[in-house]
Design brief:
Its cofactor is Zn(2+). With about 325 residues, the protein is α/β, with parallel strands linked by helices. The protein contains 15 helices and eight strands. It has one domain: TIM Barrel, CATH 3.20.20.140. Helix 8 links the parallel strand 4 and strand 5.
């Protein structure tokens, strides 16, 4: 397959983990937060080492990007550049998630933060053949007092650049019991729902995310493979899995790439999508992800076509954008 030429859809991509390293370095210099580190050392800190130990070490790579993503200019620029980079590798639709509460260190209002990233995305859409939307995330483990404020702040952009609500961050068993009030509040406002679950060992969290939080998609979900109830509720309800294979290996969600259940899920008619998670942190692209999955698991063009169509169907895009995306199916030669 011509992997570079294939049309692609990325439904699980984090803004702060996908900024251009050169941009982060430039902003760090401007803000005086390089801490005496050389350019090489600083840029290397943005991606995980080859032998990443666990999710906590993976998350360390977000510290510097978050430090410099505290102005409207930086947020708009990084948003634009992410969509530009994606468009240049034939990504036709991109959903980006980020946590607005993480960008208030210099006093920005939530509305300013959301407006900035949407503006960056819209600017890229005007220049390239790409469409996109933003997903607003909150982190598990943070105080819940401000969650409704995030949902309220994003409401003016609903279906105008913002489409969904997400719960992310370090995963603990049983976390879903803390959030039904907030997912219901978001759904009542018109948000779609996707939840990070089953990334770290706990398949029960996938079951809970669907049954307690009404998740329409699951971020990762890998460990549902060992939990029959979770597996059944996901498969029977056609809940899409936002799989991020390279990231899953790096965070030790799976031990090695060949152990990833993406092929088994796909062959058993579980709805799977292929995504980057964090382009910079994982040193990946959609082209790399699709190639690694197809080559490792001997997936055919017909397999990829099926996954592409699932990604269109399960995206939170408008009907008009979905119809546009279906027009690229012919570029997947079978």
């Amino acid at each position: 397959m011509n992997y570079a030429g294939l049309p692609k859809i990325d439904l699980h991509c984090h803004l702060d983990g996908s900024a251009r390293p050169e941009t982060i370095y430039e902003l760090a210099l401007k803000d005086g937060v390089t801490e005496g580190r050389s350019k090489e050392v600083l840029i290397n800190s943005l991606s995980v080492p080859e032998e990443c130990k666990n999710l906590d070490e993976y998350l360390d790579c977000f510290a510097l990007p978050l430090q410099v993503m505290q102005t409207t200019e930086a947020l708009e620029r990084i948003s634009f550049e992410l969509f530009e980079d994606a468009a240049k590798e034939n990504v036709k639709y991109l959903e980006v998630r980020f946590g607005p509460l993480l960008h208030q260190q210099k006093g920005l209002a939530l509305s300013e933060i959301i407006d900035s990233v949407v503006k960056g995305m819209k600017r890229a859409e005007a220049l390239y053949d790409i469409h996109g939307n933003y997903i607003l995330s909150v982190l598990r483990g943070m105080p819940t007092d401000d969650i409704k404020s995030v949902i309220d702040a994003g409401a003016p952009w609903l279906n105008k650049g913002v489409v969904a609500f997400d719960i992310a961050g370090g995963e603990k068993p049983g976390f879903c019991s803390e959030f039904p009030e907030f997912t219901q509040y978001a759904a009542d406002k018109g948000y779609r729902l996707t939840i990070h679950a089953g990334e770290q060992w706990c398949g029960q969290n996938v079951y809970d995310a669907v049954t307690m939080l009404d998740a329409e998609r699951i971020g990762h979900g890998v460990h549902m493979k060992d939990h029959q109830q979770a597996y059944s509720v996901v498969k029977d309800n056609a809940i899409a899995l936002e799989l991020c294979p390279t990231s899953n290996v790096q965070t030790k969600c799976v031990e090695k790439f060949a152990d990833h259940p993406v092929r088994d899920f796909h062959k058993d008619d579980v709805v799977v999508t292929i995504n980057t998670d964090n382009r910079t942190v994982s040193n990946t692209t959609m082209t790399k992800e699709v190639e690694k999955v197809c080559e490792t698991f001997k997936l055919t063009q017909e397999d990829y076509r099926s996954i592409y169509l699932s990604s269109v169907s399960k995206s939170f895009a408008s009907k008009e954008v979905k119809q546009h995306l279906l027009g690229f199916e012919g570029q997947i030669i079978v």
